[in-house]
């Protein structure tokens, strides 16, 4: 009897997690516009599952900040303001700078430079024909090098908790500014050069500048 209950719980949990990943990818691929209501009925029909795991998945997405819930309206897409975007970027820059300082202390700058150069080379071959998703994915992969090179699971978890929201804002910007990726590559090249020169003060200034953007969220 107990085994049967456990199996049902595992199956239910798996459905919830699968629904979470599917809806998360739809959000990051801009299947919904900011502020758009998310129809549970439509998702139930599309995924061919009951609305319970879908509601649970949407609640998880709300906890992670990708969707919002309003009384009598249900779930809707996250809608950014300049203030909420600034809070995100401040938190992300703080994490990247913390990772950079750890790279210095742990003598991992050579590994950091190698990872950054690899990501830069991937960015350089990107053209405007690429999807917004791919462009932003490659751009943030460069930024995340400051954390991923440390192979610190806790720091990676912190990075991931912020990443989806920044990714969503980044794809929104890219969809409204098709040449943004060119300026992004140039900024990354400046950051790479400053790290290579061991100019720590310049690295900090460039990272702050890189994320200090005003976006039109209207």
- Give the amount of beta strand, in percent: under 5%
Shape annotation: elongated
Q: Helix and strand string, N-terminal first?
A: HHHEEHHHHHHH
SS class? mainly alpha
Rounded average pLDDT: 85
Instruction: Please compute the radius of gyration using only Cα atoms.
Output: 20 Å
Q: Quote the distance from N terminus to C terminus.
A: 55 Å
H/I helix tally: 10
- Spatial order of the strands forming the largest sheet: 1-2
Largest beta-sheet details: 2 strands, antiparallel
The portion of residues assigned to helices is: over 70%
Report on this structure.
With 218 residues, this protein is mainly alpha-helical. 72% of the residues lie in helices and 4% in strands. The protein is built from ten helices and two strands. The protein has helices spanning 2-28, 40-47, 51-63, 82-105, 109-124, 132-143, 145-148, 153-176, 180-196, 200-211; strands spanning 67-70, 74-77. A two-stranded antiparallel ribbon has the order 1-2. Helix 1 packs across helix 3. The longest helix has 27 residues, at 2-28.
Topology:
Layout: H1 2-28, H2 40-47, H3 51-63, E1 67-70, E2 74-77, H4 82-105, H5 109-124, H6 132-143, H7 145-148, H8 153-176, H9 180-196, H10 200-211
Helix pairs in contact: 1-3, 4-8, 4-10, 5-6, 5-9, 6-8, 6-9, 9-10
């Amino acid at each position: 009897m107990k085994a049967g209950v456990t199996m049902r719980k595992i199956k239910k949990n798996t459905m919830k997690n699968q629904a979470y990943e599917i809806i998360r990818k739809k959000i990051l691929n801009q299947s919904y516009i900011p502020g758009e209501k998310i129809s549970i009925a439509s998702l139930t029909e599309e995924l061919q599952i009951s609305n319970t795991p879908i509601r649970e998945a949407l609640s998880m997405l709300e906890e992670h900040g990708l969707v919002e819930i309003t009384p009598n309206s249900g779930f809707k897409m996250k809608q950014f303001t300049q203030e909420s975007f600034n809070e995100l970027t401040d938190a992300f820059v703080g994490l990247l700078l913390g990772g950079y300082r750890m790279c210095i202390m742990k003598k991992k700058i050579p590994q950091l430079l190698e990872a950054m150069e690899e990501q830069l080379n991937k960015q350089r071959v990107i053209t405007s024909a690429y999807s917004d998703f791919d462009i932003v994915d490659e751009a943030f992969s460069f930024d995340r090098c400051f954390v991923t090179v440390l192979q610190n699971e806790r720091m990676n978890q912190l990075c991931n908790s912020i990443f989806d929201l920044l990714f969503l804002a980044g794809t929104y910007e890219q969809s409204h500014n098709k040449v943004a990726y060119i300026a992004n590559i140039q900024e990354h090249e400046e950051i790479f050069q400053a790290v290579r020169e061991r100019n720590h003060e310049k690295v900090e200034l460039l990272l702050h500048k890189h994320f200090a953007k005003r976006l039109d969220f209207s």
